[in-house]
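[recover] target loaded
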């Protein structure tokens, strides 16, 4: 399979994942706004401040990660030879981060103890590390050498 075909496969995967992530987390944000509008006590009471913070963080991180997927898809489509050796790592880490980072925040807000998030919060730092690795690999990605381009 050619580099361009593989690059287009990754671009397609991240474009779809990004738009669906954005849709899901924007729906979560709208739901949180409805909780405010209808004064849902299990969300707005002072005793539930941890839940409110965790779910807001889940919404924000999830929506941002959806945009990062879309940007990554554009990079893979426009520059098919960019970061070729690291593309599988970048893709896997971005998907992992998109599940674990907002998922950890959301699960941490489902049940909490004396103001501390629930056990699900342990997923958030792991997702953060996955995101750091993916962004590092993207930032340090290389184009093919200019010598090979000049020969063509």
């Amino acid at each position: 399979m050619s580099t361009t075909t593989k690059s287009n496969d990754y671009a397609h995967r991240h474009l779809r994942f990004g738009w669906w992530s954005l849709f899901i987390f924007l729906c979560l944000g709208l739901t949180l706004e409805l909780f405010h509008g209808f004064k849902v006590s299990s969300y707005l009471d002072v005793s539930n401040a941890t839940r409110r913070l965790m779910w807001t963080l889940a919404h924000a991180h999830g929506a941002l990660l959806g945009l990062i997927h879309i940007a990554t898809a554009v990079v893979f489509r426009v520059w098919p030879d960019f970061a070729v050796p690291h593309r599988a790592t970048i893709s896997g880490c971005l998907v992992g981060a998109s599940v674990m980072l907002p998922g950890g925040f959301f699960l941490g807000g489902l049940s909490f103890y004396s103001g501390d998030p629930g056990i699900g919060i342990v997923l958030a730092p792991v997702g953060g590390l996955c995101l750091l690795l993916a962004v590092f690999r993207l930032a340090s990605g290389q184009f093919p050498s200019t010598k090979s381009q000049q020969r063509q």
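[recover] notes: The chain has a mean pLDDT of 92.
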